[in-house]
């Protein structure tokens, strides 16, 4: 379980109208947000939404096209080298050296971060303990599982004790148990006052963040604590439907006037009603599916999940942009 950090009012990351263009393509389209010290701030969005591009600008690895930002008090355009001394960065792809041992990788990054000789041994032992790799210190990194590699990469990213940590899809490709163990480490760092900005496309991971920014097509379309996003952005009833041939059933459900939208969810469907009460939509769904010859096991109102909110936000943004697309053709 997470130990909740004392809420700090100190802002350590601040972004105003940040943009990044690649030719005519807007990878990041004018986003603004701020992150407090010790906060775990998440970026949730599909691949290609602009999450990684934003992180690279904040780390001083990519120059913005427009807008401004400050990280640890330094300007992301003028002070990139100063920023790099105050942050830890873990990229999507495993960035350590497979041919080196665990210990050799730690030694290499100690040199990169220019740790004083007196601190190198102490920090190495800390990383080995934190990552649970004491018994594997002389193992080649190539033979480690994805979960162990991930923990080693995190340890190397925080060797120099940075106050801010950027994690770009850090748990992509590892099993759920390893993801949960990794998040326990993030909680420990946050409780010590480290600020964490993490990108993810895993819904369950999003729930672990203090606040969440939903990013889609380069735009920040929602911002707030996960629990608040559920209540603020999805006030209509959500129904869970278990029936045969859910893909075909979805087409029927989406045509009902009582239903705002529907999406596949696990082995069944989730439907968002047009009203706060689930009853009328549930009755209409049962009748429509039965009339079309579908066997229906269950139609029931449920508490919305973050995935329901995410799908609803994206579909609403697509509907809002559709008229503009038609006009521009």
Summarize, please:
Helices cover 38% and strands 27% of the residues. The protein is an alpha/beta fold.
How are the elements arranged and paired?
Blueprint: E1 11-22, E2 25-36, E3 40-44, H1 51-58, E4 66-71, E5 74-75, H2 80-86, E6 87-90, H3 102-112, H4 117-131, H5 146-157, E7 164-168, H6 176-191, E8 195-200, H7 203-206, E9 211-216, E10 219-224, H8 226-233, E11 238-243, H9 246-254, E12 259-265, E13 268-273, H10 279-291, E14 296-302, H11 306-328
Parallel strand pairs: 3-8, 3-9, 6-7, 7-8
Antiparallel strand pairs: 1-2, 1-4, 4-5, 9-10, 11-13, 11-14, 12-13
Helix pairs in contact: 3-4, 3-5, 4-5, 5-6, 8-11
Q: Would you give the CATH topology of the largest domain?
A: Rossmann fold
The CATH superfamily name of the largest domain is P-loop containing nucleotide triphosphate hydrolases
Low-confidence segments, ≥5 residues, pLDDT <50? 324-329
What is the number of domains? 2
Task: Provide the spatial order of strands within the biggest beta sheet.
Answer: 6-7-8-3-9-10
Number of helices: 11
CATH architecture of the largest domain: 3-Layer(aba) Sandwich
Task: Look at the helices and sheets and give the structural class.
Answer: alpha/beta
- Quaternary structure type: single chain
Q: In one word, what is the shape?
A: globular
Largest sheet: 6 strands, mixed
Report the count of strand segments.
14
Question: How big a fraction of the residues is strand?
Answer: 25-35%
Name of the level-1 CATH class of the largest domain: Alpha Beta
Q: Report Rg.
A: 23 Å
Report the helical percentage: 25-40%
